[in-house]
Automatic annotation (TrEMBL):
Record family assignment: Belongs to the CDP-alcohol phosphatidyltransferase class-I family.
Molecular function as annotated in GO: CDP-diacylglycerol-glycerol-3-phosphate 3-phosphatidyltransferase activity
Lineage: superkingdom: Bacteria
EC number: 2.7.8.5
Subcellular compartments: Membrane
Native organism taxonomy: Bacteria, Bacillati, Bacillota, Clostridia, Eubacteriales
Pathway info: Phospholipid metabolism; phosphatidylglycerol biosynthesis; phosphatidylglycerol from CDP-diacylglycerol: step 1/2
Keywords: Lipid biosynthesis, Lipid metabolism, Membrane, Phospholipid biosynthesis, Phospholipid metabolism, Transferase, Transmembrane, Transmembrane helix
Record-given protein name: CDP-diacylglycerol--glycerol-3-phosphate 3-phosphatidyltransferase
Keyword Lipid metabolism carried by entry: yes
Pfam families, sorted: CDP-OH_P_transf
Length: 180
């Protein structure tokens, strides 16, 4: 269990704490939830950097890192839908893309093919985490410019999410071949 994998596990462990504080519906609870979400988001960048720089990329990390990201983003989106900050359709597009790409990866893995994270996938993750942080801020501070920034960032991340999903499927359509 190397440091990168421990950071991935930490990201997963932080999710229940995030959910507890966001559900308190208080300013302090939301601030703590923002800090937890931001810290968990930072571990995503950090664990990948550590694993690659130390040549410690593992099968566990390849599986758990994207799963941890999906759990973190999904829990935040569902919470923000419940709070009325993120439209349900936006959350569903993002969550559906995550399920679809995970399914694509599973099918490819069954054929012995590993689908690495793409440039679009990395941009998608950053855009989602940024939009979520902005949306969380809107819960406690919502002058007009924050409202606009929230919806603009959600729109951008939704478009990038769609492009990223299409990119994965177009580049890896052979994994879904009906032959065999």
């Amino acid at each position: 269990m190397n440091l990168a994998n421990k950071l991935t596990i930490l990201r997963i462990i932080l999710i229940p704490g995030f959910l507890v504080f966001i559900s308190l519906n208080t300013t302090l609870g939301t601030i703590i939830a923002i800090v937890i979400f931001a810290a968990a988001s930072f571990t995503d960048k950090l664990d990948g950097y550590i694993a690659r720089s130390r040549n410690q990329v593992t099968k566990f990390g390849k599986f758990m890192d994207p799963l941890a990201d999906k759990l973190l983003v999904t829990s935040a989106l569902v919470s923000l839908v419940e709070h009325g900050v993120v439209p349900t359709w936006v959350a569903m597009i993002i969550i559906a893309r995550e399920f679809a790409v995970t399914g694509l990866r599973a099918v490819a893995a069954a054929e012995g093919v590993v689908i690495a994270a793409s440039w679009w996938g990395k941009i998608k993750t950053v855009s989602q985490m940024t939009a979520i942080i902005v949306a969380l801020i809107k819960l406690i501070y919502s002058p007009a410019f924050i409202v606009y920034i929230t919806y603009i960032s959600l729109g951008i991340c939704t478009v990038i999410t769609i492009i990223s999903g299409l990119d994965y499927f177009i580049k890896n359509k052979s994994a879904l071949s009906t032959e065999n």
